[in-house]
Amino acid sequence: MADEIKYPAGFGLKDVASQTVIKTPLFEDCEHLVSREREIYERLAQRGGHEGILCYHGTVESGIQLEYAPNGDIRTFFEEQGDAIPLEQRLRWATQIAEALGFIHSAGIVHGDVTCHNIFLDEGLNAKVADFAGSSLDGSKLLIGVTASHECPGSTLSTQGDIFAFASVVYEIMTGSPPYTGLSDAEINACYKQSEFPDTASLGEIGAIITKCWLAQYDGFEAVAQDLREVGT
């Protein structure tokens, strides 16, 4: 079961017990990343936590103890299930992620690396945002590079940076692939700088929300989540 959860390079899964995982630095030069993630999880916990974020169970030795998500990350789950995932489930994920990111931003945090690889699924297939090792706390610099297909052409250290990346996440949830799969990073960056994005017309109301996120037409995740909740009603 342990190898079902994949973390970014520099981290290792030390143990799985009592429905939790222990995340520790794999190398000494990664200790500052674990420290940043610990600070962020503690900030989120102090504010009451959120059901859309992996539950934090405190520190263990040099690492942190987190809720175990038995269904792995959304990208891996999608690769295994594909077209079998109903639209209602996909929309639920999008809404849960938006609500969680709204809470995260209210705590003075910019995630900076919002991708389907960093969103996990619990036993009930609820989306759980995770991986804050590279995130910004109270305006501190991001400690991780942003994936090109999710990188805002403006500032990535901003609410808009996470909203832009969220749009790419929802696009992948709805289509099965990240934006502009097959293009180089430089080609993707060039498209985004010219405000050229994948066509979302076939995705209906959800496609319109994705495009509004890419075009920075939302001020925050509260409005994004509200629009998602209204889809199909």
Kindly describe this structure.
The protein has 233 residues and is an alpha+beta fold. It has 2 domains: 2-67; 74-230, Transferase(Phosphotransferase), domain 1 (Orthogonal Bundle), CATH 1.10.510. 39% of the residues lie in helices and 14% in strands. It has helices at 31-46, 74-81, 87-106, 159-175, 185-193, 204-214, 221-230; strands at residues 11-17, 20-25, 56-60, 63-67, 109-110, 119-121, 127-129, 136-137. Strands 1-2-4-3 form a 4-stranded antiparallel beta sheet, covered by helices on one side. Strands 5-8 form a two-stranded antiparallel ribbon. A two-stranded antiparallel ribbon has the order 6-7. Helix 3 packs antiparallel against helix 4 (159-175) and helix 4 (159-175) runs antiparallel to helix 6. It is globular, with a radius of gyration of 17 Å. It is an enzyme of class 2 (transferase). InterPro entries: Kinase-like_dom_sf, Prot_kinase_dom, Ser-Thr/Tyr_kinase_cat_dom, Ser/Thr_Kinases-Pseudokinases, Tyr_kinase_AS. Residues 1-233 form the Protein kinase domain.
